[in-house]
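Lay summary

Proteins are chains of building blocks that fold into shapes. Our project writes down both the chain and a compact code for its shape. Here are two examples, one after the other.
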Amino acid sequence: MQPYEMSLAEASDALRTRRLSPVELTDSVLERAGRTEPHLHAYASIDAERARDAARLAERDITAGRHRGPLHGIPMGLKDLIDVAGAATSAGSRVRDGHHAHSDSTVAARLAADGAVLVGKTHTHEFAYGLTTPQTHNAWDPARVAGGSSGGSAVAVASGAATFALGTDTGGSIRVPAALNGVVGLKPTYGLVPRHGVTSLSWSLDHVGPLTRTVEDAALVLTALTGHDPRDPASLATPRADYRPAARTELTGLRVGIPRTYYFDHTDPAVEAAVRHAIDELQALGAHLVEVDIPMTRYVQATHWGLMVPEATAYHERTLRTAPHLYQDDVRILLEAGELMTAGDYLRAQRSRTLMRDAWSRMLREVDLVAAPAVPATAVTAGQETITWPDGTTESVPDAYVRLSSPANITGVPALTVPVGQDAAGLPIGMQLLGRPLGEDVLLRVGHAYELTHPARGLAPAA
């Protein structure tokens, strides 16, 4: 096994016991990125010199007995919305040409304090306002979309060009690309991970979280990210915790909700079959399956767009009026549409969100988590605009990809996407686990139990 092929947990153990050096690991990841970038384009920028300097510092510290923890010396990618002092934060847009961050975001500072090594900034759909990340190609089939808007982070992890990465999630932007590229993606509870220094799309829906090879890896990264930050008004006053799940597969007594409505509607047969098979595997591990009705499904799309569109437009108000030509057409049109929405529209969406949160809270009293597809279809061909379902109805690709993920953003509940197979073309399929607020430990326990019995698929090929 080459160092770039290691999971975070495997690499961390090798670094801690000095069977591998941070410099060897970083060089391996950089060399792998050199082979994958020409056809995948996961990164907006790579700073090899900075990465090697950080790796050499980590090597000196570890050799001197100053090991900082599981992330010390581990190469990572950060979505190009996340500020790192002295580095560009382009947000995938010409609007940000020449911009360099003056200080670290909270998450970048915490990862640096834990000794993680920054390889570079990963591509995002412009200002995270999309579900495809058009600059980046799917790790398993470059002719297909990577998913978005954290597509660069997912592809970097899936291809071995980063051991882990961070993304953001406003309507599925961690979980969608994770599912389409066969990696693990975690959208934490709203407010659990501070967003100070992270470019906003929609302040009341935005989340920051990890993309990793395994559930265990996601737990290690989440442990480093959490903790209150007063600079983010939504940051929860929760103590930092260790989220690492125990290495056991027994799920006896756990109640897993299986949706009767919504999540299996208009879903590709291969996706439904893989997810239902994975649910059966949870039952075999001792979980009790309970059918549930997903509440207020007819209002999901209107509520999500009713919140996101005006909030995004408010963030971009000044630039939209002074330099609209700098935006890509798809994003500019969405931002301009936000100017047509009334205060009443926004307030009705907020009221709907409150009702939806209450309804989900009641549902989650009956079960410990819900298991469902992460996205209704695997990665579509680049440029494809619609998906036609078996009953003949059509749906736009962005609407299809966001449909199953946005409820967790509206309600703020945590959601974890785990790879559970592939379709006939070899494209990855993901299962989504949704839990109670601050119930990340339960999701990680279940996801880890599943992957202990179904080891993660290998990395995507380099070419």
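And here is the second example, written the same way.
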Amino acid sequence: MNVHWKRGLYVSLSLALAAAVAGGCGKKPQEGAGNTNQAGGEKPFAGKTVSLVTANHPWGDAIKALLPEFEAQTGMKVKVESFFEDQLTQKLTVQFTSGSATPDVFMYRPLQEGKLFYKNGWVHPLDEFSNKDAAYDFADFSKSAIGSTTVDQKLAGIPIITEQEILYYRKDLLEKAGIAVPKTLDELAAAVKKLHDPKIEQYGFVARGQRSPLITQLSSFLYSEGADFMQDDKATINTPEAVKAFTTYGTLLRDYGPPGVLNMSWPQAFGIYAQGKVAFMTDANSLYKNVTDKEKSTVADKVGFAMFPGGKAGSKPYSITSWALAVNAKAANKDAAWEFIKWATSKEIVLKTQKQGNPGARMSVWDNPDGVTGFPAELVPIIKESSKVGVDHDRPVVISVGEARDAVGEVVQKIMNGDTNVQAAAESANKALQAIIDKDKTK
């Protein structure tokens, strides 16, 4: 609200009240008028309604429970709809394509839809809002999390859920074999080989083997070897560093993975790990409950967590924003939409949602003992360190994400199927990825 207008309103109200008192008016102000807060100040958004669309996600459940608090503070109403991931993307695409002014605020996956949404003009940049209020402390968000929600140097959204790739390991198996927790990819390969014993259904390593899903987990292998998917609109998955990363990931799965690993995404990988049949696994920290929940896992009390092992460039796991909040470019009241986002991503509310197991992006909350109660104590320092050294994307940052993932994933699948000419496979995939990058420029 305009400060001068607000000051003028207060003066006018004061004069009116004084006149009423002088005239002997004994009427009391109406109770519950909806335009004053508990301290007697004005609610600038009283009577406004913000439409919010969320994914069917634990964060959405947590924020819904807190909405009465926001509505009481602001006088604003929040209308919420929730959808499964694919339904959510479809709904948003249909509404934005038609130029709809709703929803005002929405959850989205920055690295999956972010560039598409932004390039199509469906997202309102939030740079003008993020540093307006010093108390909001925008600098408190991790650099990698903000990197995930930045498109063309513009802030497209505010992070609400983060994740990093970590190493899961079996404490009991390492202890019995006298093996230290691997700190490098070479150490990991040696430990995997030593603990691999398919005769007793004990496999050394598991991770995602399906062509598209494996890309996110492959990314940390690339970064840790000093490679990346692309650089300045140029595909770079044919470099020596990239070839080494492909080889390491593909060989671990081919030679030391469980049967059927070629067709595994994260549910299958976590499932077989939870059965106690695998020594090591690399995947997202956000999924840890799938192997630590005693109702789901036979090795719940034997699971250890460690930093992603380092390669030539050190330990460089992905550290990304998996879910963020954005404002519809057509929203009628962007100030009200931002007011909701500012509240939902404030230190106070992030603390409340993170205590329920939703990993946020505010470093101060991770440093707060209350903020980490929803996570295993052993996992917390790994999340904090990964956030500091991690890379802000876990796939090629392009509009045609699905095509790009398939093109790159083909290299790993060829290795898993016995192809020994990794350089040739990488060259072919690099050409395919470059074609996708070039095509996206015309969109």
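What can we say about the second shape? Residues 49-162+320-389 form a domain with the D-Maltodextrin-Binding Protein; domain 2 fold (CATH 3.40.190.10).
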